[in-house]
Amino acid sequence: MSAHDAIEAATQRLGSELIGAIEAARPADHAARLERDPLVHWTRHGGGAGFLAGCFRFVDVFPALSTDAHLMEYLRAYVGEPRDFLPVAGADGQTARRVRELVASLQQRFIAGPSLDSALSVCERLRGQGLAFTLDALGEAVLSEREADAYQDTYRSLLQTASQAVAGWPEAPTLDSAPWGRVPRLNVSLKLTSLYSRFDGMDPLGTFAGVAPRLRAILRAARAAGASVNVDMEQREHKDLTFEIFQRILFEEEFRDWPDASITLQTYLPENRADLAALLDWVRRRGTPVNIRVVKGAYWDYEVLRARYRNWPVPVHQSKAATDADFEAATRIVLEQHALLRPAIAGHNVRSIAHAIAVAETLGLPQGAVEYQTLYGLGDELNRVLAERGHRVRVYVPFGDFVPGLAYLVRRLLEATSRSAFVREMWASPLPVVGLLAKPEPPEPVGPRASARTLDAPFENEPVSDFARPEARQAMAAALDAVRQKFGRSYPLWIGGRAAEGASEIVRRNPSLTAEVVGRVALASRREAGQAVRAAARAFPEWSARAPRERAECLLRAAEVLRRRRFELAAWEVFEEAKSWREADADVAEAIDYCEYYAREAVRLAEPWRRDVPGESNEYFYEPLGVAVAITPWNFPLAILTGVTAAAAVAGNTVLMKPAEPSSVVAAHLMEVWREAGVPPGVIQFVPGRGEEIGEYLVRHREVALIGFTGSLAVGLRIQRLAARLAPGQRHVKRVIAEMGGKNAILIAGDADLDQALPGVLASAFGYQGQKCSACSRVIVDARLHDTFVERLVAAADSLPIGPAWDPHAAIGPLINAEACERFARYAALAAETGRVVFRGDPGPRRAEGHYVEPLIVADVAPDSPLAQEEIFGPLLSVIRADGLEEAIAIANDTQYGLTGGIYTRHPEHIRRARAACRVGNLYVNRPITGAVVGRQPFGGMRLSGIGSKAGGPDYLRQFMQPKTFCENSVRRGFAPPSP
Ligand code: NAD
C-alpha cells in the first residue's frame, strides 16, 4: 500500500471512530434539541438564503437600535413579519424582548463576554474540560493611530492580568506540555491590521514602521508573561505584508530565539503552498521553530465579492474540495516539518482532523506534537471527543463589546449556516459517516479566462492594479524611475497628422517638488488653433464616411496602447498632477474603459432603427456632427480627455483636444497614444492653449459643431453663452455638452456603521486632496452620532500622512498649483473666522518644496455659509449637524449644484427616501462618493452641475451624433417589391 493509501485508510478509520464517539455522546433528545436551536431552525425552515442574509443584516444593525419601536421597524424591514419566523411573537414589546434575548444568546454562544474577566472564567471552565484556549480581544476597525495605541494597550494589559490569573490554575499536563517541552498556558491571538491605522500592502515600509514598535511591545510583554502570541490572518490583501512583518520582527536579535510565536496559513488561497515553502525557508534560517496554525480561511465571501467587484482574478479556491485538499497537503508538510513548524490544525471538519491524526500516526509523531484548534461555540462535540483521546485542543476565545464583535459574529454565523460548511453538516442526525469522510477531490482547475477584447465580446471594466502584489509595486516604481529620466522634454502641437510648433510654451512643474520641470508643452495661438480646425474639417468627410466598426477598432487599438503603457502614463500623472499611485492608476484604467465602452456603443448605435410597412421603408439612424472640440479639466487628466475625444471620434466627428493647462504633458502623451493606435491624420489634433484665449477662440469658431466641455461652472456657463451666438457664415447650431462642478454631501444617518462611514468620508473628502468634482465637501451628521463621529473622524484624519505623490506612504499630497493654494487659503481663513476648526493637518517641512496646504475639518458650519455652498476644490471638509434624515436631505439639497451625494445608513426606508429625494446625478449608499466606474455608474450631474448625459453610460454617445430619418416610398403604379 502506498503511503497515501495508508493515510487514507487510517483517515477513514479514525474519522469513523471520531464520528462514532460524537454520536455516542449525544443525548437521546439530540434531534429535538437541535430543532430548538434558532440557528438550526432558521437555516432549515427559514425560507432560504435571503432570510438568513436578512437575519445577519439585522444582527449587524442591532446595537444601533435602542428602542423597541426601532427594533421592530428594522426587524420587519430586514427579516419580515415576526409571526412568520418567531413562534412566540406577540405584541411588539414582547417580540422585541424575545429578539433581544435571541441575539444575546447568539452573542454568548460565539463571544466569551464583554470583558477579560468574563473571558477568563470561560477559559477556566474550558481548562476544567481539558481544553486549552487562545484569547482574542475584539476591537473596532482601527482607523486612527490613537485607536492602534489603544489596541496595543489592551493586549499589554491583557497579558499582564491574564498571566497572573492563569498562574494559579491547576497543572494540566496534556495542555501545558508537548514533546519539545513547556507549552505556554496563556495564549493570545491578534491582528496586525489593528496595530496600525494605515495597514496597506502598497506601502510595506510605512506599514512596517507603523506596526513594528507596537508588535515588539506586545511580544516583549508576552515573553515576560510566559505567554504565546498567534498572529491571525485576515483578508488576502494583507497576507503578504502580515507574513513579512512577522518574519522580520521574529528574526530580530531580541526575538530570534523565541519559539512561542505563531502564524496562520490559509489554505483557501492557492498561494498557500508558496507561502508555506517560504516560511519553512525562513524558519530554517532563523534557527528557532515557530508555531503554525493551518486554517481554511474565514473571508471566503469577502474575497470573492471583492475580486468580482474589481474584476480581479478570484484569489481563493472556488471549490471547497480544493481548499480541503490543500488543507490536507499543507497538514502533511507541516507535520513532516514539525521540528521547524509546530503544527496546530484548526477547524471543525472531522475528515480534515482525522487526516491530520492519520498523518501524525504514520509519521510516528508522539502524542501532543500536534495541536487541534476550534472556535468557541462551534466545536463543542469535537473538542470533547478529541480531548478524551488525549489530544491538546485549543479553543479560540474572542471577547469584547458587542459592536466591535459584530464582524466576528457575522463571520461565525455565516460559517455555521453556509451551505457547504461542515458545521452545518454536523447538524444531521444520525451523522452521515460516508459523506462526512469523503476524500476531497477537487475539480480540474479551469484555466484563466481568455479575455476576449473583440468588438463582439461584451464590455468589461479594466481592472485597477492590485498594489498589494509585489509585481504591481515593482512595475510602478520602475515606471516612476523611467519617467523621471524623461523629465524636461518638449512636446509639440499636432495638427493634421503633423507635429507643429506653438507660439509659446508652458513649463510644467511637479506640484510635489516644484524645482522639478516635468516637461514643456507647445501652446497654440489663434493661428495654430485656426489651422487645426481647418485640418479637422478637411479630415471630416473621409473619417465620417468610414464604417463605424472601423472607427471602433481604432479605439480598441488605443485601449491596447494604453494598457501597454499604463504604469508609465500613471507615473506621468504622479509627477504632473500629483496623483497618488492608486488615483493615477485608476485614471488610466478609466481611460481604457472609455475606449472599450464607446467602441461597443458606436457599433450598437450604428444599427439603424427600422419600421417598414409594405411599400414604404423607414429608417432612423445617426450621423456625426462635424468638428468637435474637447475642452477638459486637469484633475482626471487622461480619463476625461480620452473619454470626450474617443466618444467624439468614434461617432465620426473629427476632434481638437484642448486640455487644461496643468495637464498638458499627460495630454501630449495621449496624442502619442492615438498616433500609435493608427488614428488617421487629421482625425484628432492636439492644441493645448490658454482657456480664455484658445478655448474661447475654438468655442466661437464658426466651423466648430460641438463642444465637449468638462470644468468649472463659471467657464461652462460662459461657453454656453458664447456657443449660442451665431458666427458670420455659420450654418448650424452648436451643441454644448457641459459637465461642471459640485458641492457634494454625505449624510450620516443615526444608524450608520461608523467603521464603514469614517473611512468612506475621509476617502471621499481627502482623496486626491479633495480636487475631484465628486469629492465630499460637506458631511451632514445626525445629531445622535455627531460628536462621536467628529471625534473619530479627527483622529483618523490626524493619522493621514502628508507627502509627495510619488511616495506610496503619503495619503494626502499637494494641490495642483500656487493659484489653487491661494484660493484654498482664502477659504481656510473664512473657516477660521466662521466655523470651528477641529482638524488642521501639517505638511511640515514639505511645505516649502511644493504646493502643500493644511487639510482642514471644520465643524458647526452654517448650511448657507460660503464654506458649505461654494466649490472649494481642496482638502476642506465642513461638518454640519442635522436633526433627522429629512433635515439632512434638505441641507444637502440646498445648493446650486447636484453632482454626487451619499448616505450611510442601515435602514431600507432611509435608503428609499434618499433615492427619491436627493437631488444629485450620482447617489451612493454605504460607500465613498467618488470613483464612478464606466458602464456601472455612468457619471454626471444635474442642476448647475451639468447638462450632458452621463459619461460612461448608454446615452452618452448619442450626444455626439444627430439622428436622421429616411423614408422611401417604393410603390410604383400600385406595385411594391416585397420588404427586405
Ligand atoms: P476650468 O473650468 O478652469 O477649466 C476647464 C477647461 O476649460 C480647461 O481646459 C480650461 O483651459 C478651459 N477654459 C477655461 N476658460 C475658458 C474659456 N473662457 N473658454 C473656453 N475654455 C476655457 O476647470 P479646471 O480647473 O480645469 O477643473 C476643475 C473643475 O472641473 C471643477 O469645477 C470640477 O468640479 C470640474 N469637473 C467636473 C467634472 C464633471 O464630470 N462634472 C469632472 C472633473 C472636473
Structure description:
The protein contains 34 helices and 30 strands. The protein has 980 residues and is α/β, with parallel strands linked by helices. The model has no long low-confidence stretch (mean pLDDT 95). The strands form seven sheets. An eight-stranded parallel barrel has the order 1-4-5-6-7-8-9-10, surrounded by seven helices. Helix 26 links the parallel strand 19 and strand 20. 46% of the residues lie in helices and 16% in strands. Bound molecules: nicotinamide-adenine-dinucleotide (NAD). Nicotinamide-adenine-dinucleotide binds next to helix 27 and helix 28.
Features of the shown structure:
single chain, 980 residues, alpha/beta, eight-stranded parallel β-barrel, seven-stranded mixed sheet, 34 helices, binds nicotinamide-adenine-dinucleotide
SSE diagram, text form:
Elements: H1 3-25, H2 30-36, H3 38-45, H4 48-61, H5 68-78, H6 92-110, H7 116-128, E1 132-137, H8 145-167, H9 173-176, E2 177-178, E3 181-182, E4 187-190, H10 204-225, E5 228-231, H11 236-251, E6 261-266, H12 272-286, E7 290-295, H13 300-310, H14 320-336, E8 341-346, H15 350-363, E9 371-375, H16 380-388, E10 392-399, H17 402-417, H18 422-425, H19 433-437, H20 470-484, E11 489-491, E12 493-495, E13 498-500, E14 504-510, E15 513-523, H21 526-545, H22 548-564, H23 566-576, H24 581-606, E16 609-610, E17 616-624, E18 627-631, H25 639-650, E19 654-658, H26 664-676, E20 684-686, H27 691-700, E21 704-710, H28 713-724, E22 735-739, E23 744-748, H29 754-766, E24 776-782, H30 786-798, H31 818-834, E25 836-840, E26 856-859, H32 866-869, E27 876-882, H33 884-893, E28 900-904, H34 908-917, E29 922-925, E30 961-969
Parallel strand pairs: 1-4, 1-10, 4-5, 5-6, 6-7, 7-8, 8-9, 9-10, 11-15, 18-19, 18-21, 19-20, 21-22, 23-24, 23-28, 24-27, 26-27, 28-29
Antiparallel strand pairs: 2-3, 12-13, 14-15, 16-17, 17-30, 25-26
Helix pairs in contact: 1-15, 1-16, 3-4, 4-17, 5-6, 8-10, 11-12, 14-15, 20-23, 21-27, 22-24, 23-24, 24-25, 29-30
Bound molecules: nicotinamide-adenine-dinucleotide.
Nicotinamide-adenine-dinucleotide binds at residues 631-636, 640, 658-661, 691-692, 695-696, 699, 710-712, 715, 718-719, 739-742, 773, 871, 873, 899, 940-941, 945-946.
